């Protein structure tokens, strides 16, 4: 297991379209840099939805990926497990809780989700938990 000096980046989202756009852009950015990405999701339903979405994005093509609960060597993996299945350097945590495996990644992306009051509260709790752990936390509002 590798441990990195990491950055936690919260991406502000105010609606579901923006949320999907930010996820897709982040995955594509690191895919083009040939960096492995792990995306943790809260449920199989969320995994299926994101899987379908990434096969259609970007519009000019798609982002090759897999959905897995076992170790694999794919560049982009969507999972419900809190394990670094593909030895990724980049984590996109779409779960409502602070990621217990964040320390295994160079960069962790979280959503600062303002689609409703509950999601904003969850975002605030995660932000504070990362700060309390001594991690460098940034909020991107653009």
What does this structure look like?
- Pfam families: DNA_pol3_chi.
- With 142 residues, the chain is of the alpha/beta class.
- It has a single domain (7-115, 129-140), classed as DNA polymerase III subunit chi (Rossmann fold).
- The chain is 32% helix and 23% strand.
- The protein is built from 3 helices and 7 strands, in the order βαβαββββαβ.
- Strands 3-4-2-5-6-1-7 form a 7-stranded parallel beta sheet, sandwiched between helices.
Give the arrangement of secondary structure elements.
Elements: E1 7-13, H1 16-32, E2 37-40, H2 44-55, E3 66-67, E4 76-79, E5 90-93, E6 107-113, H3 117-132, E7 136-140
Parallel strand pairs: 1-6, 1-7, 2-4, 2-5, 3-4, 5-6
Properties at a glance:
alpha/beta, single chain, 3 helices, 32% helix, Rossmann fold, 142 residues, seven-stranded parallel beta sheet
């Amino acid at each position: 297991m590798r441990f990195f000096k990491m950055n936690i980046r919260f991406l502000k989202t105010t609606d579901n379209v923006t949320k999907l756009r930010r996820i897709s852009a982040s995955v594509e950015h690191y895919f083009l840099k040939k960096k492995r990405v792990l995306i943790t999701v809260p449920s199989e339903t969320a995994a299926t939805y994101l899987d379908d979405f990434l096969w259609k994005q970007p519009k000019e093509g798609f982002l090759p990926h897999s959905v897995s609960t076992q170790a694999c060597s794919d560049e982009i993996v969507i999972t419900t497990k809190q394990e670094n299945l593909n030895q990724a350097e980049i984590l996109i945590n779409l779960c409502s809780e602070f990621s217990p495996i964040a320390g295994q990644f160079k960069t962790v992306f979280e959503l600062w989700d303002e689609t409703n009051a509950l999601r904003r509260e969850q975002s605030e709790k995660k932000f504070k938990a990362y700060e309390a752990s001594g991690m460098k936390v940034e909020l991107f509002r653009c």
